[in-house]
């Protein structure tokens, strides 16, 4: 088992295995060009990383309307001012993350900013908040999309959990093929959604009144009793609720390494395009809400009412609904684009297991994708596919990340002090104030609805990341990483070969053992039963007739154990030969077909486990391939740790 620590290590890899990611901006030109075809263009990045933000226009304006509706028609008049405030915050965030991309081209977003300017522990809070947000985004997006489907086809309501899991499997499978393939797959749904929303806004602006109100007919109004004043607390709550439309803005900054060279410039273009499209759609929808004097009703989304009012209850109305449903379901892709990159950075910093930093041949952080899918599946099952169960937990984490990122960028400008740094620092400081207030308000207003789980989970994740870091630090200390080791020397080598019978495999094992060591010891475990005694005597006779030049040592065991007698013998050898290097070579067959592995007795694994657990010996697994083209055995080696 190989242990890797930080920059001083390399990853285990074999033919066709995953490779460690390139580090730094100075990667070789040839390697960069070869990997670019598996990376994103600006347009593909918009499709792969903006689905969460784009889909938020389906519930962001509605969140504002539902809060202001408590103040009646008078309160609804504040929809546009609140939306403009959110759009202003969006502009601040886009400008900030554009600078984050330039300053931190290796990705990581708020985690990278906080790590450099706010300290390691604060950066872990930012990382934990992003992890929570990304995982919840997958669950919320999938359940929201499936909810739109079951609203159109009520007969599927009872199967919504299975449908959610099926959508999750689809998105996961596409992402395992690479970010480029996911971008290509989701480019059309994204374009359809954005096009339909922009068309709806354009058509609606030329309407004097709603064309149709059929979708809201017969539904109870959610509008409160008339009021003549709107308190600051209500406006603040509406602002915080509408800020759910800002989730996903940070995804581009987190996934900068996923873009083609020049990665930072392409990511900046994607960030600006995302902000522009999102801002236009949010402001346009809020204008239509005021223009049509829309009133929220139970059971019908605000977006559906706006499509009805702009297009009429016709095919265009259903196109908007279908595009919204698809994009909501696929908005989970943003998390699959951003979280695996963040996890790879955490793994490089020894806060997560190092396998999260590995990349597959399509530049996919496969382990991050799979673990995200598994945790999201658990959430989907836990929630029963119900969006309302998950929404109170959503968007809190991202506000924490926003705030830490903005504060970190203020310190960045103060430390770097480029031209105009005061204005940039003021912009980030203002953004930190807004997002910080939003984080507090959202947490307070949704605490009893389930937000307490996030308040509890956030420190637990931070503690987990710290524990992993301490474990790697202890391992690094024992391995003396960063120090110049003693010169290697040759030690007397003892090779122990467990055998149970004579075969070609036994011959290959002893041949390999004599090539590896100075002294070879063949051992067989014997048991006191009559049948085992007969087998042992037969093996002894055959061994003497074969006469391989290696003594056969019998290890008596009163119990029907296999691994413990071998490990006990290896421990005894280590005690009697303290200066020798003891190696246990375990011969195993490697079937030609995967299904044939269930036919094996797994003796090799039992012995390897016992030796690894009880000794410090080197373990070699000699795999003898059983196939027409398999003529040579394969030798795998590993050191055990006590």
Describe this structure in words.
It is a single chain. The chain has helices spanning 29-36, 42-49, 51-55, 60-68, 72-76, 79-103, 110-117, 120-152, 160-176, 179-205, 232-242, 251-254, 263-291, 302-311, 315-330, 333-348, 366-383, 387-390, 396-416, 421-479, 504-516, 530-546, 563-576, 603-614, and strands at 493-498, 519-526, 552-556, 581-590, 618-625, 634-639. With 642 residues, the chain is an alpha/beta fold. Helices cover 61% and strands 7% of the residues. Helix 2 (42-49) crosses helix 10. It is elongated. A six-stranded mixed beta sheet has the order 3-2-1-4-5-6, with helices on both faces.
Alpha-beta classification: alpha/beta
* Widest beta sheet: strand line-up: 3-2-1-4-5-6
Helix and strand pattern: HHHHHHHHHHHHHHHHHHHHEHEHEHEHEE
Spans of at least 5 consecutive residues with low confidence: 1-34, 638-642
- Main beta sheet: 6 strands, mixed
State the end-to-end distance: 12 Å
Shape: elongated
Q: Tell me, rounded to a whole number, the average pLDDT.
A: 78
- Fraction in beta strands: 5-15%
Strand segment count: 6
Percent helix, as a range, is: 55-70%
The radius of gyration is 31 Å
Number of helices: 24
């Amino acid at each position: 088992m190989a242990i890797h620590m930080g920059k001083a290590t390399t990853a285990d890899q074999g033919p066709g295995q995953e490779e460690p990611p390139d580090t730094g901006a100075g990667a070789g030109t040839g390697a960069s060009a070869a990997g670019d075809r598996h990376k994103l263009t600006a347009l593909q990045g918009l499709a792969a990383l903006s689905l969460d933000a784009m889909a938020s226009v389906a519930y962001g304006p509605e969140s504002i309307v539902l809060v202001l509706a408590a103040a009646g028609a008078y309160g609804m008049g504040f929809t546009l001012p609140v939306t403009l405030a959110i759009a202003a915050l969006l502009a601040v965030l886009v400008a900030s993350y554009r600078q984050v991309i330039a300053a931190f081209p290796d990705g990581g977003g708020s985690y990278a900013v906080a790590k450099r300017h706010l300290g390691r522990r604060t950066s872990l809070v930012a990382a934990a908040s992003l992890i929570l947000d990304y995982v919840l985004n997958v669950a919320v997006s999938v359940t929201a999309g499936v909810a739109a489907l079951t609203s159109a086809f009520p007969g599927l309501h009872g199967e919504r959990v299975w449908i959610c899991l099926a959508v999750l499997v689809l998105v996961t499978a596409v992402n395992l093929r690479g970010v480029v393939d996911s971008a290509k797959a989701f480019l059309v749904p994204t374009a359809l959604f954005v096009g339909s929303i922009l068309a709806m806004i354009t058509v609606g602006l030329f309407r004097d009144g709603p064309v149709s109100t059929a979708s809201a007919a017969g539904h109870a109004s959610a509008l409160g009793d008339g009021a003549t004043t709107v308190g600051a607390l209500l406006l603040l709550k509406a602002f915080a609720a509408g800020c759910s439309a800002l989730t996903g803005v940070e995804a581009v900054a987190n996934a900068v390494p996923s873009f083609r060279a020049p990665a930072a410039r392409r990511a900046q273009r994607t960030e600006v395009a995302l902000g522009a499209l999102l801002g236009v759609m949010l402001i346009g929808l809020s204008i239509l809400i005021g223009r049509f004097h829309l009133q929220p009703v139970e059971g019908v989304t605000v977006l559906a009412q706006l499509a009805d009012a702009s297009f009429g209850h016709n095919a265009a109305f259903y196109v908007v609904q279908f595009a919204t449903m698809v994009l909501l379901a696929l908005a989970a892709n943003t998390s699959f684009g951003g979280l695996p990159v963040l996890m790879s950075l955490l793994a490089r910093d020894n806060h997560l297991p190092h396998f999260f930093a590995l990349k597959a041949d399509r530049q996919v952080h496969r382990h991050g994708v799979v673990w995200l899918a598994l945790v999201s599946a658990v959430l989907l099952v836990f929630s029963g596919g119900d969006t309302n169960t998950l929404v109170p937990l959503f968007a809190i984490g991202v506000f924490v990340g926003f705030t830490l990122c903005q504060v970190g960028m203020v310190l960045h400008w103060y430390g770097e002090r480029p031209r105009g740094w005061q204005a940039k620092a003021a912009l980030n400081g203002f953004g930190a104030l807004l997002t910080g207030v939003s984080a507090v308000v959202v947490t307070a207003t949704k605490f009893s609805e389930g937000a307490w789980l996030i308040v509890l989970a956030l420190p637990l994740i931070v503690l987990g990341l710290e524990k992993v870091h301490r474990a790697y630090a202890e391992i690094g200390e024992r391995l003396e990483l960063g120090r110049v080791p003693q010169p290697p020397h040759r030690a007397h080598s003892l090779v122990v070969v467990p055998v149970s019978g004579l075969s070609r495999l036994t011959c290959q094992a002893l041949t390999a053992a004599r090539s590896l060591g100075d002294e070879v010891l063949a051992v067989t475990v014997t048991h006191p039963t009559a049948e085992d005694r007969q087998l042992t005597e037969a093996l002894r006779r055959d061994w003497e007739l074969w006469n391989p030049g290696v003594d056969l040592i019998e290890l008596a065991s009163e119990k029907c154990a296999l691994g413990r007698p071998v490990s006990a013998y290896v421990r005894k050898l280590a005690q009697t030969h303290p200066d020798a290097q003891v190696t246990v070579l375990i011969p195993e067959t490697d079937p030609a077909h995967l299904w044939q592995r269930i036919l094996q007795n797994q003796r090799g694994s039992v012995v390897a486990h016992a030796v690894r657990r009880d000794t410090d010996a080197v373990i070699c697994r000699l795999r003898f391939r059983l196939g027409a083209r398999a003529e040579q055995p394969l030798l795998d080696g590993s050191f055990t740790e006590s």
